[in-house]
Amino acid sequence: MNVEQMLAVLDADIVERLKTAIEIGKWPNGVALTAEQRQICMQAVIAWEHQHVDEKQRTGYIDKGKKEEGEVCEDDHHLHEPEFKPIRFV
């Protein structure tokens, strides 16, 4: 079975069961997933979500935020910390 055939038979319910199996490391019948099975399941979930799910709803999505042009980060927490002094071993 190639990737296109595999993705054609998957639906949202099957993908949710695959995600649960990946999370707990077991199939619904209690049999443990092998490392290879876990890897294949992850690849299937990622590929299916890429075709059927909005980017922000996909597994592993990280919202990186956006800055306007010329905007700088307000990261001044280091100004309130004492000066860094390395440890000297004698």
TrEMBL record:
InterPro entries given in the database record: DUF1315
Name by which UniProt lists this protein: DUF1315 family protein
